[in-house]
Amino acid sequence: MAQKNKSIFYCTQCGNETPKWQGQCSACGAWNTIVEQPVQAKAKVPSVKTGGGGLRVPQSRPRSIREIETTQELRFETGMGELDRVLGGGAVKGSLVLVGGAPGIGKSTLMLQICDNLCRFAKVLYVSGEESERQIKLRAERLGVHSEKLYLYSETNLSDVLEAVGEMQPDVLIIDSIQTLYNEEVAAAPGSVGQVKDCTLTLMQLAKGQGITVFVIGHVNKEGAIAGPKVLEHMVDCVLYFEGEQNLAYRILRAAKNRFGATNEIGVFEMADNGLAEVPNPSEMLLSGRPENAPGTCVTCVMEGVRPVLAEVQALLVPTSFNVPRRASNGFDYNRAMLLMAVLERRGGLKVGVCDAYLNVINGLSLDEPAADLAAVIAMASSFRDKPVPGDLAAIGEVGLTGELRTVNALGQRLSEVRRMGFTKCMIPEKSGVKVPKLEGLQLIAVRNIREALTAVLR
User: Fold this and answer.
1) pLDDT per residue over 14-69, tens digit each?
2) Rg for the chain (alpha carbons), in Å?
3) Would you say 143 and 115 are in contact if contact means Cβ atoms under 8 Å apart?
4) pTM for the full model?
5) Crossing angle between the packed helical segments 450-457 and 373-385, to the nearest 10 degrees
6) Half-sphere exposure (Cβ direction) of 330: Cα atoms closer than 13 Å
């Protein structure tokens, strides 16, 4: 009697395994995320040598923690400062980096561009399952990549890729994309969660076993997540998301996970005819095209890692024609926006509850820190009263439920960025907790609550 193949079921959102299928995950509560994967043997990684008698001899042995040297960090620069910033100072040897984003956003362009600098001191193997080698060569010529140490390989079979790696012994391996790679020993279609998980695990063993830096490109699905996101995130060392609208020239690279650096850094790029160009001054880019004397807009300063960045928050409040007012938020946390609207009505005295409210952060930036609360409140009040905010004013501060303003961290760096960008006024909380530096040409407006803030700005 033929032996029945065993299968396991796990959640694509959190990775929780269950013995049978169920509609809702018992760990994270997500619906319709349980998928089946056959239990199969994994592909062999050519990092294990064979000794006499056919015995498998590992390349390394367990060592005492005192024997391990940490004086030199094996990092190398990729040639793009914005990418190195997000990675925490450069790529780490033997690491596995996942670069995710929507199709056509520029992931392949970014990976191909860094090859030109990497080939100066390393051998790079670029494996593509989506394009032929001739197509990659044409794109490389357009980007100005002509190094002889760059090797192209159009293949989707994982075993063939591992064999090529064993023969070439490259220093950097780029997989474009993980959804096209498949393992013959796994009974699942290419791109399925089972294939993606198995191939990523094999690449992780390859990176750690041979010390090869592996960059893996992953496409984002309709729900805005990489196939099996939580399953992959715990395997890889870094998860980078490439964000932006395809009809806009600017792209933002953000770290969702980084074992070798901070996760709150961003890199800004501009898509041009000859590839991606770094944007060393994101504040100027984010404020470009800002309207003058227009109600419903206010500028704030947020910290992206150690970098202060100015962002424009826009709001539109109009009387509703429905029984239930409509709410929408883009780039600003929806629940946080609804909280600020309730505070604005209760503590600020504005009847915004009967209005349709739309909140937007310009140029695709996502604000996830409370320092932008005051700017959002002022923008909504400006739209409600139809009075413009002075164009030379910025607002920084957290808003509490009682309407009070709380201080934020790194206030001195934020004020320096505000002054550098030409603003002459900045509204901050009165009780900052630390000594606020006085900058020449920048007037500080200290307020205690949102009523004082609205009175000072929208007279």
Assistant:
1) 667 788 888 888 877 878 878 776 665 444 444 444 333 333 334 557 878 887 77
2) 26
3) no
4) 0.73
5) 50
6) 12
